[in-house]
Amino acid sequence: MARYEVSKWSVFLATRERGRRVREEIEQQLALLAPGQNLAISFTGVEGITVSFGDECVAKLIVARLAGDFDDRGLVIEGMNIDVRETLEAVLSRRKIAAAVLNAKGEPEILGEPGWMHETLTAALELRSFRASDLAARLHITPQAANNRLKSLVGSGAVARERIVPEGGGKEFGYEIVIPQYA
Amino acid sequence: MNDSMPPLVIAGNAPILSGAVNPSSWDLPVLDLTEVTWVTPFDVAALAAVWLRLEAQEKSPSVALPRDSTVRAYLVDMGLPSFLPGDWGDGGGCAVEPPWLRLTRVKSPDAWDDLQSELWPVARDTLGDYDLTQRTLEILGELVDNATTHGRSTVGTFVCAQTYTGTTSGLPPGVWLGIADGGVGIPAHLRRNPKYSTIARDEELIGMARREWVTGTTDRRGWGLVEVFENATAAGPSQVVIRSGRGQGDFRLRPDARSSTRFTRLDLPVPGTWIHVRVMRR
To answer: Is the CB of A107 inside 8 Å of chain B's CB atoms?
Structure first.
């Protein structure tokens, strides 16, 4: 797994401009990965961040993934102290988006909103490699609802998606968990 | 500049922050600090912004130094002589502990971020409390980010910070921050957004600037001041004074209680944005 260390910049990250620069470096790292691989953004050693930095760096990465950027590879945030985690949670919740994170025990979680993301991640971790219809069956929801949830889950970085051609023809996406240890 | 014009007299305690200074113009030929008796980081940052703005226009005023040696020493400790001319002396002899952030001219957001590795341990050692350090640096970070992006100018942004025991001010022990820029100011910045372009009163726009998603840009943003107020409230009782254009907002913030706000229309527009933050130090 590739890892990007945010602390190489500073112990405290303040401005949107710095957030943009860090995000651009992360995007460069993502571009070097093969589909299905994962990049961990490590906040180990970072004492604090501002909301503006978090929004420009992390939230905009997620927004770009929701629009399709690098959605065939994974992204997970790790090494956050309580302050960094609270700030990122506020940033993500305000935009009604979510990010995949590893908690202090190294277990995957969802940070941000909406609330149903947590059970969706749990189901995806059990399925590992799946289609929207599999998730719909697991969660007892409609295929349309499963597709909507998967869009957010791909955005969070926990899952990568790739276009596949089903046996009967047409277009469909295949989904795969890309969180390290679970992939 | 016309030498027959009156000097800009800055006198008394916290002269600019208190509003006691009411000049006819900020563009005067002499900056008279002779009768200053006590200054806050807000006053120091504002003085630097006023002087540097005039210097950038090649209209540098002469400076009459404070008569009081302890005030002069404090301003030396604060770093003002790095920007204002005069025979200030070497400092020392001031009863107030040196500032933990001397007056710093920040020319870009990156320059502020580059300071953080040095500033964090100093703030942590001085403020002692981890939570207060976090909140203080978040407040400074958001304010300097705003100033160096939306308020960007050749003047730059001036920032300084001091802890006070409260002996002189009579206020609870606290952390005082001063941030001043020479940019377009908050009201003019917000009017760039068509949603706010018809709002005439500057003080109304200052009040709006602390609301979520209110921004002068076309970006989906507008969280900086919201965070400043959230942090200042949580660390309260706190005070935030925002002076920009013809408006001032004076916000008194308390955790678990309603804040009180007083808006004032200024006779003389502030050339940029000047902000004072005081948070309690427990």
So the answer is: no
Cis peptide before B15 (omega within 30 of 0): no
* pLDDT computed for residue B218 by the predictor: 74
What b/e sequence results for A97-106 when a residue is b if at least 16 CB atoms lie within 10 Å of its CB, and e otherwise? Answer: bbbbbbeeee
ipTM: 0.88
How distant is the Cα of A127 from the closest Cα of chain B, in angstroms?
Answer: 36
Q: For residue A158, what are the domain limits?
A: 2-177
The answer to whether the CB of B271 falls within 8 A of the CB of B50 is yes
Number of domains composing chain A: 1
Determine contact: B167 vs chain A, CB below 8 A.
Answer: no
A52 occurs within a structural domain: yes
For B231, the token pair is 């942090």
Would the pLDDT of A168 be above 80? no
pLDDT at A135: 96
Chain B residues within an 8 Å CB radius of A18: 109-110, 113
Residue B51 has pLDDT above 60, yes or no: yes
Q: What is the CA radius of gyration of chain A?
A: 16
Contacts of B114 in chain A (CB under 8 A): 10
A183 inside domain = no
**Count of A-B CB contacts under 8 Å:** 84
Give the model's pLDDT for residue B252.
96
Whether A65 maps to a domain, the answer reads yes
CA distance B5 to A141: 78
**What's the count of helices (H) and strands (E) in chain B, helices before strands?**
7, 10
Higher pLDDT, B183 or B97: B183
Q: What percent of chain B has pLDDT over 90?
A: 72
User: What's the CATH number where A61 sits?
Assistant: 1.10.10.10
B114 CA to centre of own chain: 21
Closest CA to A175 of A157, A149, A156, A154: A154
- The model's pTM is 0.90
pLDDT at residue A92, rounded to an integer: 95
Q: Residue B171 is encoded by which pair of tokens?
A: 């206020």
State mean pLDDT over B131-155. Answer: 93
Q: Which of A47, A50, A94 sits opposite B142 (nearest CB)?
A: A50
